[in-house]
Amino acid sequence: MEAKNNIKRANEDYLNYVLPKSYEILDILKHTDLEWTFKVKFDKEVKPGQFLQVSLAKIGEAPISVSGMGDGFVEMTIRNVGEVTSKLFKSKAGDYIFLRGPYGNGWPLSELKGKNVVVIAGGTGVSPVRGLIEYIKDNPDEFGSLYLILGFKNHESVLFKDDLEKWRKSEKINTIYSLDNEEIEGFRKGMVTAFIPELPFDSFDGNYSVVMVGPPIMMRFTSLGLLKEGVLEDKIWTSFERKMSCAVGKCGHCRINETYVCLDGPVFPYTVAKDLLD
């Protein structure tokens, strides 16, 4: 009898893990024509760096990184690039969507606490680090200084404008914002890699960690730029959030060699990530 109860509980736990639940859209913030942030009611704990599976009935589902969280809600910044997202972009506040999760490892807060933290992100890669930046900003006594290098393609693709300004004004945050081929007020011209030499790693006395997220080509050259500045491999963390698919290791689409990114990641130390060639 006890064995049957254990099996039943195990089956219920698995169903709870993969079963979508309906949640109300509270608000929608339109950053650009293609990138919107959806604020949705949510009743589970979410860690910065995790992701959710968003689904619409009879349409499908898509993995989306969490860009913010709070008491009773979660935020996801979504790019309109497919069938699910195009349908989602027709939604309005008060509509309902299905969510399951959260999934994956978040940013290693216990590893980052007490250290100077450098965050380097590009484009929509700013979304999965936004929650981390906010956590550090709201808990300044738990960390050293915070340095941001955040880059976008052009002024029309800038995300989180209000947040960028808030972070710029914070005494605890040192900011560099860039545009690939433009220079306007508040933004410098150049790829994020061009500004890595300005980071004061020598002043950290080895007490630092680096977080980076962005397109694969950006992360490749960012890691090379960091290593050139003497940054140690075991002090770099990155996210393979772009590889997410089913979230539970069943479809195999996120598999790289023997690693299932959705189960073992999406956050990895660079010592592991450097060998995850896809």
Automatic annotation (TrEMBL):
Keywords: 2Fe-2S, Iron, Iron-sulfur, Metal-binding. The keyword Metal-binding applies. Its cofactor is [2Fe-2S] cluster. One of its GO terms (molecular function) is metal ion binding. [2Fe-2S] cluster binds at residues 246, 251, 254, 262. It comes from the Bacteria. GO terms for biological process: pyrimidine nucleotide biosynthetic process. Residues 18-109 form the FAD-binding FR-type domain. InterPro entries: Cyt_c3_hydrogenase_gsu, Dihydroorotate_DH_Fe-S-bd, FAD-bd_FR_type, Flavoprot_Pyr_Nucl_cyt_Rdtase, FNR_nucleotide-bd, OxRdtase_FAD/NAD-bd, PyrK_electron_transfer, Riboflavin_synthase-like_b-brl. SUPFAM superfamilies: Ferredoxin reductase-like, C-terminal NADP-linked domain, Riboflavin synthase domain-like. Binds 1 [2Fe-2S] cluster per subunit. Gene3D superfamilies: Nucleotide-binding domain of ferredoxin-NADP reductase (FNR) module (3.40.50.80), Translation factors (2.40.30.10). PANTHER family: ANAEROBIC SULFITE REDUCTASE SUBUNIT B, DIHYDROOROTATE DEHYDROGENASE B (NAD(+)), ELECTRON TRANSFER SUBUNIT. This is Anaerobic sulfite reductase subunit AsrB. It comes from Anaerococcus porci.
